[in-house]
């Protein structure tokens, strides 16, 4: 399906440049071009550009240049297509103004992002506000529409009319990732959304972690066409064999590329393999960059450089049906180019996007457009009261002295399971026990006026004192807080209200560190350097409270996720992801 927003309104100008009756605006001369369509490296070629588009790729000049033509002498360097990020989450940490310069400097000229985080807390207006923040930028940013799968039943599926509103946009390429287990638990509601996307000619992005054989086949049969969840070669190969576009992750949360890289030795066709970040942290961006780092790692792991470049150019474009405009160096495509010193060294000397030089030698030359978010997006924390320690009491059934309690047990930084413990009742309450590594965890609805709150227990965190809280919880609109002290839990939640969103660490009645995130309560308006510094301070402060995980805030915000096994929490209670059922705290 053609995207009208991105179509060339004057293709005849390109045709005139190609035949030499009009002059090019820019020419990249004396270059070696990686032709991703054929796999060739074509020596001694020139790329002629008119406005935003490539007019011609040729060895002879044929009167295509004039006195006003900008000439870039590549001096024998390699030119590859601009890099395309096929799966990420940009409604995370930073705003467009801060993220895009890092992406542009590394050679990324096209991005496809998920939007579920923005929809969860901001609804249709919030997600449109977010999508619009990435439009009219120096690079192209596309989105996928949120299917809205959550641990909370209060977080509604996206209505079909709202989904159609989004899917009809030229900058929305498909339906965002559909969690396979959640889909099977709610086929009646999710299959119509998938069919709606397919009917409009859009893709349906997948999330099949843990699925295999018949279950995976059934999932693929629903219409899903990609998966970014394989963590090893066997899982990647199984998905390729079922016709999926397989996205290997290497980013701020998951780092699966090395384990998957063995697939290069299997003699299979890799044209349906894609490299993605699946989101990056501020620290990752500053220290490593973004997609250029991932491609370089793939090459260093032994992937054929041509295959590696295809995985972030043509393969991505073909998957999303936008290869008529991006993904390769050919007439009629956008002039999105990276000039690199060597096919094995993805370090752009020049980056060109839409026919404009946007970066040189790792330095971005063009600022991203500043977006003015709506008042609603900047005031998404809708808490109607000041929280106190009493809000986090766990009241036991009347008359009980001892009771079996369902506790969340941390297995890794992200994975949890259910643990049943017999706990004593003190003055009608269930208390945490720091000595036994049992502390409280609570989820508070920050959007609905009721501010529904559920408090449970968690073990395996290691926290000895204080509390940490965050408003950017995954897949819900909850503030998530855990702590060894109810008063500090209340302080952390109230501080988030003051900040209009963010992350907070406190102890003994004092805020130790915080990161404000006032944009939908999930993104900061600070500079990237400030965000990185404050994120480091927050995580450091959390570790000083005894938290054992490398990234305490990530460990916290994923506690509400509908995608990571096995026992999660939301404002309604505990949730068993195996069957999607909401569970109570007590077991009779």
Structure report:
- The chain is an alpha/beta fold.
- It folds into two domains: 80-364, TIM Barrel, CATH 3.20.20.140; 389-587, no CATH class.
- The mean pLDDT is 96.
- Strands 1, 2, 3, 4, 5, 14, 15, 16 and 17 form a nine-stranded mixed beta sheet that branches. Strands 18, 19, 20, 21, 22, 23, 24, 25 and 29 form a nine-stranded mixed beta sheet that branches.
- Helices cover 26% and strands 27% of the residues.
CATH class division of the largest domain: Alpha Beta
Percent of residues in helices comes to: 25-40%
Structural class: alpha/beta
Domain count: 2
**Please, how many helices?**
16
List segments where confidence is low: pLDDT < 50 over at least 5 consecutive residues.
Answer: none
Coarse morphology: elongated
Largest sheet: 9 strands, mixed
Kindly provide the radius of gyration, computed on alpha-carbon positions and rounded to a whole number of angstroms: 25 Å
CATH fold title of the largest domain: TIM Barrel
**How many strand segments?**
29
Fraction of residues in β-strands: 25-35%
Just name the CATH architecture of the largest domain. Alpha-Beta Barrel
Mean pLDDT: 96
CATH superfamily annotation of the largest domain = Metal-dependent hydrolases
* Terminal Cα span: 57 Å
């Amino acid at each position: 399906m053609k995207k009208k927003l991105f179509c060339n309104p004057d293709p005849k100008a390109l045709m005139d440049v190609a035949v030499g009756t009009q002059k090019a605006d820019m020419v990249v001369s004396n270059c070696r071009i990686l032709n991703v369509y054929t796999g060739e490296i074509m020596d001694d070629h020139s790329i002629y550009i008119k406005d935003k588009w490539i007019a011609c790729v040729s060895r002879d000049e044929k009167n295509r240049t004039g006195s006003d033509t900008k000439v870039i002498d590549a001096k024998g360097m390699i030119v590859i297509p601009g890099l395309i990020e096929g799966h990420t989450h940009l409604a995370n940490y930073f705003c467009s103004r801060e993220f895009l310069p890092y992406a542009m400097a590394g050679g990324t000229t096209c991005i496809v992002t998920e939007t579920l985080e923005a929809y969860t807390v901001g609804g249709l207006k919030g997600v449109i506000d977010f999508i619009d923040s990435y439009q009219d930028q120096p690079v192209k940013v596309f989105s996928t529409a949120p299917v809205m799968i959550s641990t909370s039943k209060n977080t509604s599926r996206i209505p079909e009319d709202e989904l159609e509103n989004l899917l009809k946009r030229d900058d929305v390429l498909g339906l965002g990732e559909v969690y396979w287990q959640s889909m099977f638990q709610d086929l009646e509601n999710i299959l119509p959304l998938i069919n709606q996307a397919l009917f409009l000619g859009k893709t349906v992005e997948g999330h099949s972690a843990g699925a295999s054989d018949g279950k995976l086949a059934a999932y693929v049969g629903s219409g899903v066409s990609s998966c970014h969840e394989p963590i090893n070669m066997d899982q990647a190969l199984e998905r390729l064999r079922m016709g999926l576009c397989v996205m290997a992750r290497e980013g701020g949360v998951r780092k699966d590329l090395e384990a998957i890289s063995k697939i290069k030795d299997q003699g299979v066709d890799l044209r349906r393999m894609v490299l993605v970040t699946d989101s990056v942290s501020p620290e990752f961006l500053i220290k490593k960059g973004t997609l250029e780092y991932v491609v370089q790692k793939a090459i260093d792991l032994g992937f054929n450089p041509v295959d590696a470049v295809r995985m972030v150019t043509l393969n991505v474009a073909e998957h999303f049906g936008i290869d008529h405009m991006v993904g390769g160096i050919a007439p009629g495509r956008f002039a999105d180019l990276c000039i690199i010193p060597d096919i094995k060294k993805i370090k752009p000397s020049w980056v060109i996007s839409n026919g404009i030089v946007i970066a040189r030698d790792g330095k971005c030359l063009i600022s991203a457009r500043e977006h003015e978010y709506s008042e609603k997006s900047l005031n998404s924390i809708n808490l109607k009261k000041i929280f106190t320690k009493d809000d986090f009491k766990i009241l036991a059934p009347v008359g009980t002295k001892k009771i079996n309690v369902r506790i969340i047990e941390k297995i890794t930084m992200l994975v949890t399971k259910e643990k049943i413990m017999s706990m004593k009742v003190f003055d009608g309450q269930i208390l945490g026990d720091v000595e036994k590594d049992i502390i409280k965890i609570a989820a508070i609805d920050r959007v609905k006026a009721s501010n529904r709150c559920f408090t449970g227990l968690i073990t395996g965190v290691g926290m000895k004192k204080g509390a940490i809280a965050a408003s950017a919880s995954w897949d819900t609109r909850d503030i998530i807080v855990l702590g060894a002290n109810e008063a500090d839990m209340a302080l952390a939640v109230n501080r988030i209200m003051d900040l209009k969103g963010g992350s907070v660490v406190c102890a003994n009645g004092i805020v130790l560190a915080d990161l404000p995130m006032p944009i939908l309560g999930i993104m900061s308006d600070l500079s990237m350097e400030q965000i990185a510094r404050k994120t480091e301070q927050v995580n450091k402060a959390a570790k000083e409270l005894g938290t054992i995980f490398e990234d305490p805030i990530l460990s916290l915000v994923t506690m509400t996720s509908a995608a990571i096994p096995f026992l999660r929490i939301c404002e309604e209670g505990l949730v068993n992801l195996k069957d999607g059922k909401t569970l109570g705290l007590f077991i009779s």
